[in-house]
Amino acid sequence: MVQYRIRVSTGCSFYAGSTNQVKMWLVGQHGEAYLGSCLRPALPGKEVEFKVDVKDYLGPLLFVKMSKKCTLQDDAWFCNWISVQGPGTNGEEFKFPCYHWVKGTGIMTLAEGTGCTVVSDRKGLYKKHREEELQERKKIYRWGTWKDGLILNMIGDTKEDLPADERFLEDKRIDFEASLAKGLAELAVKDSLNALASWDSLDNFNRIFWCGQSKLAARVRDSWQDDAFFGYQFLNGANPMLLRRSTCFPERLVFPPGTEEVQAQLEKELQEGTLFEADYALLDGIKANTILCCKQYLAAPLVMLKLQPDGNLIPMAIQLQLPQLGSSPPVLFLPTDPPMVWLLAKCWVRSSDFQLHELQSHLLRGHLMAEVFAVATMRCLPSVHPVFKLMIPHLRYTMEINARARNGLISNFGVFDQVVSTGGGGHMDLLKKAGALLTYRSFCPPDDLADRGLLGVPSSYYGQDALQLWNIMHSYVKGIMDIYYKTDESVKEDYELQAWCREITEIGLQGAQDRGFPISLQSLEEACRFITMCIFTCTGQHSSIHLGQLDWFTWVPNTPCTMRMPPPNTKDATLKTVIATLPNFHQASLQMSITWQLGRRQPIAVTVGQHSEEYFSSPEAKAVLQKFREELAVMDKEIELRNAKLDIPYEYLRPSLVENSVAI
């Protein structure tokens, strides 16, 4: 007889334990042994340990199989992992990662956690398992089309349609729903306190500026009208994705008569390489919302800015609309205009930034892209595949948070329809336009920053941190990939990896190969770059866009969700015009409530690289992960020291704040 010691870990969620007994089998290279109903799962967060005697030595272990016995009811069990040591106390220990809900009476098979590719599995020991696993997964994880013309998503209308493994665990669900209730309660209080109040001053926004704002939000309230503060946000605010260095004047920039001096100043900055632009032309032609029978308005601004030697980015001119054939050139708003005229022009830019931030930079480039990666990963990569093990920690909760967004934020009669100027259908048109412009290079910071002329800009802390985090992640990915792929040929021959890449580009992204996304990976470096892009998008890129909302959007005049008057085409605006254009108190209150709920620091969160799940069991892979964590800690400390010297600390890519997945 041969003895094995078995340890089984149950998840920490409140309902993770089970009263059902579990039957188990051990499968090794030399045979299989049925252990009977030997396991009753431990309480949540606990382990259970027991020993079993097996007639013959099974050889190196490949699988653990298990099946629940549901005598009276099916009591789902969340299994973290199973460890088997043997034969005897000196035998090798094999770890079998699970991290799934075990439901029903079907047999679940867990592969040993070292991982292998189809190329390295020369004996075909895992061939049948990986084929059956993917066959079953493809029945569950199917592509859906929420709206025609958008990139694809996980099929299902609501969060309840998702597989149990994609749902929030209890702690996350309770926190999310409690914060929503708190935000709605505060909204009701603010509405009742301000329903009869008159709004005739920008200071009136202080009436709703309470509960949940950050320290920087208070600074925004005090400084939002300053030109340098306005310019800073293009570099390091909530949406640093639009700014680019000018190499020539934008085609749309037409100089009206009397602006020759401005043109000369812009020419000078252009020649010196210090002229920058932010173009919101994507908003041109998008239909504006109608809220409670009141028409809302959109603009499509162009902002020209100069980078000063002290690092400040200062606006030089704002054009709110594109030129129209047969019409006079659009008004060019300037810092020398009357204060309220210039302020209103900047408010229009900031409102336009709200639209592109939330829909293009945040929803599309963060949430929806991550969902494409998630569905493709579940459909194409078996759990034994090293790239599955690399990707899966960075896909946690993405499907549910996106399902909630589709049924709350951007649904019919959702938040966008209620208070955002692109709501009522314009947001869908904008997503389609933006989706057609997604390029592979724009998701890779070394390329994106180079293309936008931001490499080496000392005051671009987003750029510096994005590049550093990308390099750390690329090193981590390469370290793992070097364990499993020794040649470029081994990458080319891995048909599971190739299918995953093709599924993302051709199916999920609806044929994005014409915009640089690969449909095959021809070398180890290409594979490392593509995987790094996926992980960075789900972590650093999303956090750099998400974390700034609470700071920059809570003081509503700085980033208005909607505008209630048309964009000006004259320079006679007054304070009354500005107040009449900005959101009313209910719209502003709802913007603040949603911003707080979604933008607050999440108490139930896993920061990048700090996931507790151990998908890799080999010492080599664990060493690579440990090095990754050490490099993240060094970066975090460097940012802390740098920020101590800055007037406005930049923290949105600080590893201790970056979430490990798109989970909020």
UniProtKB/TrEMBL annotation:
The record marks 101 as: Essential for stabilizing binding to COTL1. Ca(2+) binds at residues 17, 75-76. It is an enzyme of class 1 (oxidoreductase). It holds the Pfam family PLAT. It is found in: Cytoplasm. Binds 1 Fe cation per subunit. GO terms for molecular function: arachidonate 12(S)-lipoxygenase activity; iron ion binding. GO terms for cellular component: cytoplasm. Fe cation binds at residues 362, 367, 542, 664. Residues 116-664 form the Lipoxygenase domain. It comes from the Eukaryota. Its EC number is 1.13.11.31. Coiled coil: none annotated. Pathway: Lipid metabolism; hydroperoxy eicosatetraenoic acid biosynthesis. Keywords: Calcium, Cytoplasm, Dioxygenase, Fatty acid metabolism, Iron, Lipid metabolism, Metal-binding, Oxidoreductase. GO terms for biological process: arachidonate metabolic process; lipid oxidation; lipoxygenase pathway. Belongs to the lipoxygenase family. PANTHER family: LIPOXYGENASE (PTHR11771). This is arachidonate 12-lipoxygenase. It comes from Erinaceus europaeus.
